Amino acid sequence: MGLRLQIEAYLLGLVNTGAIDTVIPRRIAEELQPPITGRSTVPTTKGPVEPYEYTGVIGITSRRRAAPMLVSKDVGFPLIGIAILKPLSLEVNPATGRLRGSVAFLHLRRIRVMRLGAHLR
Question: What is the number of other CB atoms lying within 10 angstroms of the CB of residue 69?
């Protein structure tokens, strides 16, 4: 019988409306040890990079969804891309800079990143 292992980290992250994907720092990924699902080429201001990809769960307040994430050594804190906002029923209010859904949230929020698919036998 397999045992499902779930590791959580509560972090402050910034919603980056100029980014599609969510990116977490390498140091956090090293602690969570997520199962890597691949690599992709991503354009950045420093030129193209090839970060590792994995799927984890992102939670902003009580809303949670599985989502692809990228791992980067070039960011110091999680950057939440716009691709996860719609599944969480959130959007950025351009007038206030706050996240809104059924409840308005601050632009800078505590997020929960979890590792999925870790099985010990």
Answer: 28
pLDDT surpasses 80 at 63: yes
Query: Range of 28's domain?
Result: 9-116
Is 29 within a domain? yes
Q: In total, how many domains does the chain have?
A: 1
What average pLDDT score do residues 87-108 get?
71
Q: Is residue 3 part of a domain?
A: no
**Is 29 in contact with 84 (CB distance < 8 Å)?**
no
Asked, for residue 25, whether it belongs to a domain, the answer is yes
Mean pLDDT for the stretch of residues 11-32: 86
Q: How far apart are CA 75 and CA 70, in angstroms?
A: 11
In a domain, 102, yes or no: yes
What pairs with residue 86 in β-bridges? none
> Where in 34-120 does DSSP place strands (E)?
36-39, 52-60, 63-72, 79-80, 91-93, 98-100, 108-115, 118-120
Q: 90: closest CA among 75, 102, 72?
A: 102
